[in-house]
Design a protein that fits this description.
Structural class: alpha/beta
Shape: globular
Helix content: 25-40%
Number of helices: 8
Radius of gyration: 17 Å
Order of helices and strands: EEEHEHEHEHEEEHEHHEH
Largest sheet: 9 strands, mixed
Distance between the termini: 30 Å
Length: 245
């Protein structure tokens, strides 16, 4: 098993520049956000985890030097960030989990269950989803009339009707690694942010006849990432509550 952790972000809305830290190194409960993520990935060997770094990458590389690193020099979106890990996974043909260094609430059990479903269902891509309990600026899961996955539409690109959808894409996936890297070059940046979205990858794979499935997490609090100081406080409080149990 392999994993790619996207951790190249600056954390502008989190005011991370004031702390002279990249986003993934901001702390919750005394540990960097990335440390919580890597703890949840501890079922994967460290040499099987690729961390994509960019802004102030030295801080992350010094703290987590036992992992493999890939470099995103320009912030061109999540699809571009994932592509940066291609060389680090050269020669590997198997499932790869793609997740984020700013999502400290995702648990080891959730990651393992998603990977198990991906394998049992023989999917080429498994999209991990969550049900919104409050409005979030996440991509919406678009399904057909039979409930089958169609695509993900980013919040900024949603129609008013699509914004009412409560099943959200949390940005975490399990892919067949070879098929993923084969199609990433087909991503387009014709969207509101002019970025290459990893969220477009499942739809491209589906167009090619690959099998796409979903895995919905039961505990919706796990899908929260850290983008603002309020998010950081929220996640830290949930981590404290979890540690007390």
């Amino acid at each position: 098993m392999r994993a790619v952790v996207l951790a190249a972000g600056k954390g502008k809305r989190l005011h991370s520049e004031e702390f002279e830290l990249p986003k993934a190194m901001r702390k919750a409960c005394g540990e960097p956000l990335l440390a919580h993520v890597l703890e949840s990935l501890s079922f994967i060997d460290k040499d099987g985890i690729v961390i994509v770094v960019g802004y102030m990458k030295e801080a992350i590389m010094e703290r987590f030097g036992e992992y493999t690193f890939a470099f995103q020099d320009r912030q061109l979106g999540t699809g571009h960030a994932a592509m940066c890990a291609k060389d680090a996974l050269a020669g590997y043909d198997g499932p790869v989990l793609v997740c984020y260094g700013d999502m400290p609430l995702m648990t080891k059990e959730t990651y393992m269950a998603a990977i198990e479903k991906h394998t049992l269902d023989k999917n080429d891509c498994t999209v991990i989803t969550g049900i919104a309990e409050k409005p979030l600026a996440y991509g919406r899961i678009i399904r057909d009339e039979k409930g089958n996955f169609l695509k993900v539409v980013e919040d900024k690109d949603c129609t008013p009707e699509q914004k009412e959808i409560t099943e959200l894409n949390i940005g975490v996936y399990v892919f067949d690694s070879v098929k993923l890297f084969n199609i990433l070059g087909e991503l387009k940046n014709n969207n509101a942010q002019n970025e290459y979205y990893l969220t477009d990858a499942p739809a491209i794979m589906m167009e090619k006849g690959f099998k796409i499935g979903t895995f919905t997490i039961e505990d919706s609090t796990q899908m929260y990432g850290v983008n603002t100081p309020e998010d950081l406080e929220f996640c830290e409080n949930l981590l404290k509550e979890r540690n007390r149990k």
